[in-house]
């Protein structure tokens, strides 16, 4: 049977496609046999696509029955050529490129150029005035701080003087308190000694007074005993002797009173 060149050419073009070239030989043969190509046509297509003879390649499966080939309008066609660009495509491309370029230029002029452009004399003068104002505010702030520091220093000195005066007065008061405590301790010690002396003298005085009282009581008892004896004698002697008793008793009482 004669080889159908149209089908073989379409098969060669298909096999040379990069996406098909990486497939295995068996897959390629199976695909070509499924398109009703004979074994001779498959071998010819493989040989032409790779430059290697595949006459000895065994068939991938049982022989396929022969079918009537498709008409030429259903055969594989080569890919269409890339579309040609006319003036409208170039105009659209130029418009897009111009718009993008103008946008980039506007953005650069608005945001990038002020950052890298040298300052103008007006800008320099404005910056100079701003810096001078900042320096003036800084100097005024420093002067205010100096004044506040001087005021705080004067107030601190006054407070220190008052504190020194208060400390001196406190020391004087403490010295007076210590002296008063010392005098009070001396007075307390003297009073304690006097009380101790009185404590020792009172028992002695009481003992002396007791001895004196006991002596007087003894004398009184003796006098009473003598008086009792005389009374008894007078009562037993009679009325004549009674008149002499008062004189004797009177003398004894007068003598005792003089002794006291």
Automatic annotation (TrEMBL):
<dbReference type="Pfam" id="PF04695">
    <property type="entry name" value="Pex14_N"/>
</dbReference>
<keyword id="KW-0813">Transport</keyword>
<comment type="similarity">
    <text>Belongs to the peroxin-14 family.</text>
</comment>
<feature type="domain" description="Peroxisome membrane anchor protein Pex14p N-terminal">
    <location>
        <begin position="4"/>
        <end position="48"/>
    </location>
</feature>
<keyword id="KW-0811">Translocation</keyword>
<dbReference type="GO" id="GO:0005102">
    <property type="term" value="F:signaling receptor binding"/>
</dbReference>
<keyword id="KW-0175">Coiled coil</keyword>
<keyword id="KW-0653">Protein transport</keyword>
<dbReference type="InterPro" id="IPR025655">
    <property type="entry name" value="PEX14"/>
</dbReference>
<protein>
    <recommendedName>
        <fullName>Peroxisomal membrane protein PEX14</fullName>
    </recommendedName>
</protein>
<dbReference type="InterPro" id="IPR036388">
    <property type="entry name" value="WH-like_DNA-bd_sf"/>
</dbReference>
<comment type="function">
    <text>Component of the PEX13-PEX14 docking complex, a translocon channel that specifically mediates the import of peroxisomal cargo proteins bound to PEX5 receptor. The PEX13-PEX14 docking complex forms a large import pore which can be opened to a diameter of about 9 nm. Mechanistically, PEX5 receptor along with cargo proteins associates with the PEX14 subunit of the PEX13-PEX14 docking complex in the cytosol, leading to the insertion of the receptor into the organelle membrane with the concomitant translocation of the cargo into the peroxisome matrix.</text>
</comment>
<dbReference type="GO" id="GO:1990429">
    <property type="term" value="C:peroxisomal importomer complex"/>
</dbReference>
<keyword id="KW-0472">Membrane</keyword>
<dbReference type="GO" id="GO:0005778">
    <property type="term" value="C:peroxisomal membrane"/>
</dbReference>
<dbReference type="GO" id="GO:0016560">
    <property type="term" value="P:protein import into peroxisome matrix, docking"/>
</dbReference>
<keyword id="KW-0576">Peroxisome</keyword>
<feature type="coiled-coil region">
    <location>
        <begin position="153"/>
        <end position="190"/>
    </location>
</feature>
<dbReference type="InterPro" id="IPR006785">
    <property type="entry name" value="Pex14_N"/>
</dbReference>
